[in-house]
């Protein structure tokens, strides 16, 4: 009986590995730390803005470099936020370090979401984000309602939407006999597998007559 249960455990582990491998192979590579990606998604949902748009802005502004600083040392971090905004961002959000990726993303999303809501148009909002509202208005007065910058960002946004990049951030749910259901994100899959094997073997030793319950 124990040998049969051990074989079941090994088969389950093999299936889990195969499932995870196939999942990773089908997913787009994440351009930022997993935690930062999740934070972008959370903050975007909070501010009612597309996370793909935010990611596209980051790509154009800083090429995903968390410690990026503009050549004139006025704009900082992933979303290249100008330091002149720091005073009011500190008051509104408690921002004190524009090179901290989480603070930078929170502040950038706050600014960008406000512009999208105000202008109700991606190109107008992006032009204002990039050149400031005064600079954008000068372009609009000349009859330009999109820019090289805004078109590039929108193109990347469409690319991320098509690839469903934020769908690659789910969690894995598992149950083992006598264990509480947990949610474990994919960066912890090895720990997850160890726990599953350990729980299953312990269950087999302590309850040789009962079946193993394993769901992945």
Topology of helices and strands:
Elements: H1 2-26, H2 34-46, H3 51-62, E1 75-76, E2 81-82, H4 86-93, H5 101-119, H6 122-141, H7 148-163, E3 171-176, E4 182-185, H8 189-206, E5 214-215
Antiparallel strand pairs: 1-2, 3-4, 3-5
Structural commentary:
The chain is mainly alpha-helical and 216 residues long. The chain folds into two domains: 2-29 and 169-215, no CATH class; 34-167, Lysozyme. It contains eight helices and five strands. The protein has helices spanning 2-26, 34-46, 51-62, 86-93, 101-119, 122-141, 148-163, 189-206, and strands at residues 75-76, 81-82, 171-176, 182-185, 214-215. The chain has a three-stranded antiparallel beta sheet, with helices on one face. Strands 1-2 form a two-stranded antiparallel sheet. A hairpin with a 5-residue loop joins strand 3 (171-176) and strand 4. Helix 3 crosses helix 7 (148-163) and helix 5 (101-119) packs across helix 6 (122-141). It starts with a helix and ends with a strand. Residues 21-25 and 171-187 have low confidence and may be disordered.
Can you summarize this structure?
With 216 residues, this protein is mainly α. It is 61% helix and 7% strand.
CATH topology of the largest domain: Lysozyme
State the helical fraction. 55-70%
Shape: globular
Q: Which architecture of the largest domain would the CATH scheme give at its second level?
A: Orthogonal Bundle
Please report the distance between the alpha carbons of the first and last residues.
23 Å
CATH class of the largest domain: Mainly Alpha
- Quickly count the helices: 8
The string of secondary-structure elements, in order, is HHHEEHHHHEEHE
Largest sheet: number of strands, sense, barrel closure? 3 strands, antiparallel
Average pLDDT over all residues: 81
Q: How big is the Rg?
A: 23 Å
The order of strands across the largest sheet is 4-3-5
Spans of at least 5 consecutive residues whose pLDDT stays below 50 are 21-25, 171-187
Structural class: mainly alpha
The portion of residues forming beta strands comes to 5-15%
């Amino acid at each position: 009986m124990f040998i049969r249960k051990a074989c079941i455990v090994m088969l389950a582990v093999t299936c889990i590995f195969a499932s995870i491998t196939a999942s990773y192979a089908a997913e787009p590579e994440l351009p930022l730390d997993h935690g930062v990606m999740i934070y972008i998604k959370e903050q975007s949902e909070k501010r009612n803005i597309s996370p793909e748009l935010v990611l596209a802005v980051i790509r154009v502004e800083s090429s995903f470099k968390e410690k990026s600083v503009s050549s004139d040392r006025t704009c900082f971090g992933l979303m290249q936020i100008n330091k002149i905004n720091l005073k009011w961002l500190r008051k509104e959000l408690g921002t004190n370090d524009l090179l901290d990726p989480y603070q930078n993303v929170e502040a950038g999303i706050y600014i960008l979401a406000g512009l999208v809501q105000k202008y109700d148009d991606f190109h107008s909002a992006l032009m204002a984000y990039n050149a400031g509202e005064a600079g954008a208005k000068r372009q609009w007065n000349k009859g330009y309602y999109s820019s090289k910058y805004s078109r590039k960002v929108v193109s990347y946004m469409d690319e991320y939407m098509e690839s469903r990049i934020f769908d690659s951030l789910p969690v894995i749910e598992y149950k083992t006999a006598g264990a509480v259901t947990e949610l474990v994100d994919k960066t912890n899959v090895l720990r997850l597998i160890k726990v599953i094997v350990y729980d299953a073997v312990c269950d087999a030793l302590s309850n040789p007559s009962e079946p193993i319950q394993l769901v992945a």
